[in-house]
């Protein structure tokens, strides 16, 4: 298995694709930065697992753990707090998860930040990038709440475990779902299994009537989901007009999650509270708490500009552009050949 | 029996699900960027033969099923059990009607079949992909038709009924694909 998992013509097309992304940002005066892939700290998310490694030559003389980044978010925010202005980065990110059709544990991420943008403005710019690089139709926009109402006929912001479980019985007899204690897990299950595969699909009804029909990219429009529940805010600001939702959005295209973005949280105290709440959830789930990134907190305290940021999975985006069926065909060597 | 984490799920893994041994046909990891990961699997229930979809929360463990496939030659039916023999060790295994029900009409003496054992008991019998059987009854058919348009039904020695071309006659031996029940050709005696 010395041979690449992608063909050479595909890898050449990838090179042109990456150049187009850089051209897009150059035309908008967003400059390219590089930040460390190895970090002293990592994210506290319950559902994100970072690789770590040992560093034997620290100035303290002690052996210490360094983490491979799950995204360049914290380091880029420190640049923003140091008055970098609008910046982007194309970098490797790592997530300790099973490889699959749409995921390789090591992957390429595009991330960018725009001072004075909110989530709405940044979604529009991401839509522009999609049209420029992979020639999509203009995206459609759907709030998280409206997506559940349209596809599953209930309001995800006014629900509870009992109602969710009774809705789920219409779709699955899996016992663990009935024993689940987190509403967010059940919402994520319904979203992943019942909504995501249909987002932006023009003939959703026809497709379910005719499952044999082969879908082509013409059948799809990119679809933004915005205003996630505040309980899934991650690093986004909670909305001032409706405290049930946060300024977080995701982008879906051809049934694949391509991007996640925030109108960024600036409050260091709120950020610390969220890190601690995440760690409490980790401990409750029997996972180790993660070290909190005090450099990020200090940068927020010093002052993060009002800004929005988004991370895009480049391997996935390129895979869809080329009509590839497996992410291994979009990268030179997948993890089994690395 | 060992348990298997969702990380070990792959096609061919045998698991106990709802008290029944099952075979994984397809496994897909579904991981929202910021959310709980799931495994979506397509499985075949090995006793009922039903194919169903299930989801698991990633990281959970499922009990494995002590299931294995062995190759045995069909011997005879005693009215209650169907008897099979290992051609090397001469060890015999008896399968009940539930295990053979889908393959009874394709069982030919001395043909090597695949028996699926669960806790050493046969739960399914799969006949060879092709069997040769004699036609016991079919209409004489129309003279001059050799193109095999449409065909006609023919009853075989095991009771199976297949569509054959019009020129094929009672008493001839034909080859049949047991996966589809389709006529393949005449066999020279």
UniProtKB/TrEMBL annotation, chain A:
Residues 14-338 form the Aminoacyl-transfer RNA synthetases class-II family profile domain. It catalyses: D-beta-lysine + L-lysyl-[protein] + ATP = N(6)-((3R)-3,6-diaminohexanoyl)-L-lysyl-[protein] + AMP + diphosphate + H(+). One of its GO terms (biological process) is lysyl-tRNA aminoacylation. It comes from the Bacteria. One of its GO terms (molecular function) is tRNA binding. InterPro entries: Aa-tRNA-synt_II, aa-tRNA-synth_II, aa-tRNA-synth_II/BPL/LPL, EpmA, Lys-tRNA-synth_II_C. GO terms for cellular component: cytosol. Keywords: ATP-binding, Elongation factor, Ligase, Nucleotide-binding, Protein biosynthesis, Transferase. Homodimer. This is Elongation factor P lysine(34) lysyltransferase.
TrEMBL record, chain B:
GO terms for molecular function: translation elongation factor activity. Residues 131-186 form the Elongation factor P C-terminal domain. Keywords: Cytoplasm, Elongation factor, Hydroxylation, Protein biosynthesis. InterPro entries: Elong-fact-P_C (IPR015365), NA-bd_OB-fold (IPR012340), Rib_uL2_dom2 (IPR014722), Transl_elong_fac_P/YeiP (IPR020599), Transl_elong_KOW-like (IPR013185), Transl_elong_P/YeiP_cen (IPR001059), Transl_elong_P/YeiP_CS (IPR013852), Transl_elongation_fac_P (IPR011768). The keyword Coiled coil does not apply. It comes from the Bacteria. May be beta-lysylated on the epsilon-amino group of Lys-34 by the combined action of EpmA and EpmB, and then hydroxylated on the C5 position of the same residue by EpmC (if this protein is present). Lysylation is critical for the stimulatory effect of EF-P on peptide-bond formation. The lysylation moiety may extend toward the peptidyltransferase center and stabilize the terminal 3-CCA end of the tRNA. Hydroxylation of the C5 position on Lys-34 may allow additional potential stabilizing hydrogen-bond interactions with the P-tRNA. Pathway: Protein biosynthesis; polypeptide chain elongation. Residues 69-123 form the Translation elongation factor P/YeiP central domain. It is found in: Cytoplasm. Signal peptide: none annotated. Pfam families: EFP, EFP_N, Elong-fact-P_C. The modification N6-(3,6-diaminohexanoyl)-5-hydroxylysine is found at residue 34. GO terms for biological process: peptide biosynthetic process. Involved in peptide bond synthesis. Alleviates ribosome stalling that occurs when 3 or more consecutive Pro residues or the sequence PPG is present in a protein, possibly by augmenting the peptidyl transferase activity of the ribosome. Modification of Lys-34 is required for alleviation. NCBIfam families: efp, PRK00529.1. Belongs to the elongation factor P family. This is Elongation factor P.
């Amino acid at each position: 298995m010395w041979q690449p998992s992608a063909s050479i013509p595909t890898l050449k097309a990838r090179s042109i694709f990456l150049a187009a992304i850089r051209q897009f940002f150059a035309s908008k005066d967003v400059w390219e930065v590089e930040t460390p892939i190895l970090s002293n700290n990592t994210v506290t998310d319950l559902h994100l697992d970072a690789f770590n490694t040992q560093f034997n030559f620290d100035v303290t003389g002690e052996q210490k753990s360094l983490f491979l980044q799950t995204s360049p978010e914290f380091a880029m925010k420190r640049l923003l707090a140091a008055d970098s202005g609008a910046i982007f980065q194309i970098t490797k990110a790592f997530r300790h998860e099973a490889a699959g059709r749409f995921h390789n544990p090591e992957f390429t991420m595009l991330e960018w930040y725009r001072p004075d943008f909110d989530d709405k403005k940044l979604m529009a710019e991401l839509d522009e990038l999609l049209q420029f690089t992979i020639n999509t139709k203009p995206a459609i926009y759907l709030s998280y709440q409206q997506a559940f109402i349209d596809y599953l006929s209930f309001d995800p912001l006014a629900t509870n475990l009992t109602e969710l479980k009774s809705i789920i019985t219409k779709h699955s007899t899996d016992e663990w779902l009935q024993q689940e204690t987190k509403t967010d897990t059940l919402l994520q299950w319904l979203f992943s299994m019942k909504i995501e595969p249909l987002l932006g699909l023009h003939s959703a009804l026809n497709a379910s009537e005719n499952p044999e029909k082969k879908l082509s990219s013409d059948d799809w429009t990119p679809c933004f989901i915005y205003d996630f529940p505040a309980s899934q805010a991650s690093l986004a600001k909670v909305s001032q007009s409706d405290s049930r939702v946060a300024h977080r959005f995701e982008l879906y295209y051809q049934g694949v999650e391509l991007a996640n973005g925030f109108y960024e949280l600036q409050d260091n105290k709120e950020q610390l509270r969220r890190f601690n709440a995440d760690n409490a959830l980790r401990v409750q789930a029997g996972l180790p708490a993660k070290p909190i990134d005090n450099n990020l907190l200090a940068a927020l305290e010093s002052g993060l500009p009002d800004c929005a940021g988004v991370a895009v999975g480049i391997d996935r985006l390129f895979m869809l552009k080329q009509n590839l069926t497996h992410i291994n065909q979009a990268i030179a060597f997948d993890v089994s050949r690395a | 029996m060992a348990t298997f984490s969702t990380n070990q799920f792959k096609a061919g893994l045998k698991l106990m699900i709802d008290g029944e041994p099952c075979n994984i046909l397809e496994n897909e990891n579904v991981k929202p960027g910021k959310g709980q990961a799931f495994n979506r699997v397509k499985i075949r229930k090995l006793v009922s033969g039903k194919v169903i979809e299930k989801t698991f929360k990633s990281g959970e463990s499922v009990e494995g099923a002590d299931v294995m496939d062995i190759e045995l030659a069909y011997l005879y039916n005693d009215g209650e059990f169907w008897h099979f023999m290992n051609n090397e060790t001469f060890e015999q295994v008896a399968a009940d009607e539930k295990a053979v029900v889908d393959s009874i009409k394709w069982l030919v003496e001395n043909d090597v079949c695949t028996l699926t054992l669960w806790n050493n008991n046969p739960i399914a019998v799969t006949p060879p992909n092709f069997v040769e059987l004699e036609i016991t009854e079919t209409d004489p058919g129309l003279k001059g038709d050799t193109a095999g348009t449409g065909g006609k039904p023919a009853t075989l020695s095991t009771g199976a009924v297949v569509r054959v071309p019009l020129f094929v006659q009672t008493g001839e031996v034909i080859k049949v694909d047991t996966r589809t029940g389709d006529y393949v050709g005449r066999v020279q005696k």
